[in-house]
Amino acid sequence: MGLKCGIIGLANVGKTTIFNCMSSTKAQTSVVATGSGKSNLSTINVPDDRLYVLEKFQPTEKIVHTTVEIVDIPGLSKTGGKGEGNKFLADVRNCDALIHVLRCFDDPSLPHIEGSVDPVRDIETVNFELQVRDLESIEKKLQKVEKAAKVGDKDAKKAFEVLSIYKNHLESFQNASTVPVDEQDKKYVEDLFLLTTKPVIYVCNVDESSAVDGNEYSNKVKEYLKNEDTEVLIIAGKIEAEISELDSEEDRKAFLEDVGLTEPGVNKLIRAAYSILNLETFFTVGPKEIRAWTMKKGMTAPQAAGVIHSDLERGFIRAEVMKYNDFITLGSEQACREKGKLYVEGKNYIVEDGDILHIRFNV
């Protein structure tokens, strides 16, 4: 199950710097107050120390992390959603979640595209651009269903009603994620992949001295978003990007501690993305490999098996399940079996975060 996160924001807020914190594919940053013309792509390993703990009890040939695809999308320009500057919106459509980077630092050598640093204004600017594009999509579909509605098509009439609610909501500068329609009526816009329905994590890109507690800018962001169902993270992008280039894990840890941090911002970002998308991790453990797998929270055992391979879901018989804490406490699969901590589960079992699965199947 692939997870794709898009990094968005205005030009020169530090999007590419944040991308470089996360990625081994280092992209070129710029001091010019315009966005680059193309998206930067990278697939990164999801940090999970549990994999290396598992290896202590089950020696293995390789460890395989689950991955996240990160897209550094060119900086948005203030154009009302039209024109060359916002071709990137097609990339936004393909993302599962958005990481909205906000400039929360002063730097006279790096001019802000709006002439001053104001992250709350920047949130409103980006939201407006996305709302305009969603409104265009809604209006196009309204034109299509209107004719059918006029000749008495009941489903088209309902679609027209729902789309009109979306239209009015977006025209009131509200995101489609907060539109007041019943859950079942959202089917009428599913094919539009509306940009403002996507979950958003906000990253306040601060200077090094504000890496731990944030600053006045980030405090304003938190206050502005206090009633939103989102997460606001503080990341000192420039220093963390420099730290991420160090070869030694010990050196990286030492530099993070010097700044007052216990872990890289990328770890917090990935955890936030998992949380906002209701994702969890399960493991397969053996002498050939120990591997992490991403699943949707609440998946049954057959559905989790399907994450590994469709054949495993199709031919699912049962799952042998060990809890992560039981495995590392008792020290082996055999010990879990002897202590009654290896469970045989059927098709209705709900897989939990950290479960170690062995799937029995027949196709």
TrEMBL record:
Residues 278-361 form the TGS domain. The keyword Transport does not apply. It comes from the Bacteria. One of its GO terms (cellular component) is cytoplasm. Its cofactor is Mg(2+). Pfam families: MMR_HSR1, YchF-GTPase_C. ATP binds at N12, V13, G14, K15, T16, T17. Coiled coil: none annotated. The keyword Protein transport does not apply. GO terms for molecular function: ATP binding; ATP hydrolysis activity; GTP binding; metal ion binding; ribosomal large subunit binding. Keywords: ATP-binding, Metal-binding, Nucleotide-binding. Belongs to the TRAFAC class OBG-HflX-like GTPase superfamily. OBG GTPase family. YchF/OLA1 subfamily. ATPase that binds to both the 70S ribosome and the 50S ribosomal subunit in a nucleotide-independent manner. This is Ribosome-binding ATPase YchF. It comes from Tenuifilum thalassicum.
